[in-house]
Amino acid sequence: MKAMLAIRCLAAAASFLFGATAHGAELRGHGGPVRSIAIAPDGQTAITGSFDAKAIIWSLETGEAQQVLLFHESQVDAVAALPQGRYATAGADGRIAIWEAGRSTPVSVLHGHDGPVVALAVAPDGSTLASASWDASVRLWPLSGAPSRILKGHHGNVNAVTFLSDGTLASAGYDAAIILWPPGHDAAPMRISMPGPLNALVTVPGDRLLAAGADGTLRQIDRRGAIVAEVRVSTGPLIALAATADKRYIAASAIREGIVLLDSRTLKPVNTFGGAGVATVWALAFARGERTLLTGGADTIISEWDVETGRRLGTSAAIQADLMSEYAGNPDAEIFRACIACHTLGPEDGNRAGPTLHGIFGRKIAALADYPYSPAFRRMDIVWTPETVSKLFELGPSIYTPGTKMPNQTINDPEDRAALIRFLQSETRRD
């Protein structure tokens, strides 16, 4: 029972940890479908956004969830990694937040869109952030803080933005159009009519575009606006695209047929990932020097795939092995296995993505001065006791502590909750 519970709890939420780097990864921590993934320029860090209204910054070297970003009122639809170690998140609330690592609140908030912001892109020189919104507009935000530039020309939801090498912005939307916006204010945009609604864009060598169609077709478009190649990838809509840094390969996900890897020059399929049995994938990003593909979607998990073999990497058995080794032989420790990636236990260990649990019993909720609790936590009047901790996992954080950063999870079996309490009482007490 305890082993089964540990697996369920791991799948539910609180394991913010990779397996060993050599074996790939499963990132588990979001409490809702994963909507977006971006890799930092140095390749060492990823940021993910989810329908759970949270973004998470992950170390790709250690697998640690370095920070949970809580700001948006609802789902986080888009994320971007910016120069100088900063990040951007955007959501259904129409706001774009700019973050610096280690800070619990945004350093700035970009206002202007009147509808959900569903895509972000960073200019090749790193100076400008582009956003696409369902308010039918695109905006260019100078990261220097200068006023934004509003681009209007679409006749419905704008679903995608990407930059060409000379700074030209390309946008695509539900109105079955791609618009090329030259960097100069005086240059006229070019509107390219397409056969149907579009959900995603990427650039490929030669400043060509690949557009993901709602009809399941991937189309290649040149700078003149001509469709130079196309391939039917799926019987259902294509919903996400990603390109390797050298633009040799393109990954495309579809609602029905999973993920396909294609040669960007010929558009011929090279590999598939998981087949039709994979949960709907909304987010794609290449990682580890383009050797692997990170995917996120309806199952709330960020999975990693070997690009060459198409094999899914990382297993639950590889996760947290080193961190749990000192508790070998303690059956109660198995229930904590799903929590150790976020929470430390000892007096000298400090915080991880979640606050340290050292001395938790008898402590008032949100009482640690050095941890950035969510505002909802700070307003609560709870003292952590064996009874209140048990209730937290009986009901789940979303019910017992609504507004928390903690992903929702429950421990249904009373014996398993009792085992967790015994373990915490033993390992977190103040001497």
Automatic annotation (TrEMBL):
Pfam families: WD40. Gene3D superfamilies: Cytochrome c-like domain (1.10.760.10), YVTN repeat-like/Quinoprotein amine dehydrogenase (2.130.10.10). Residues 1-24 form the signal peptide. This is Cytochrome c class I. Residues 305-428 form the Cytochrome c domain. Keywords: Electron transport, Heme, Iron, Metal-binding, Plasmid, Repeat, Signal, Transport, WD repeat. PROSITE patterns: CYTC, WD_REPEATS_2, WD_REPEATS_REGION. It comes from Sinorhizobium medicae (strain WSM419). SUPFAM superfamilies: Cytochrome c, WD40 repeat-like. WD repeats lie at residues 27-68, 69-109, 110-141, 151-181, 281-315. The keyword Protein biosynthesis does not apply. GO terms for molecular function: electron transfer activity; heme binding; metal ion binding.
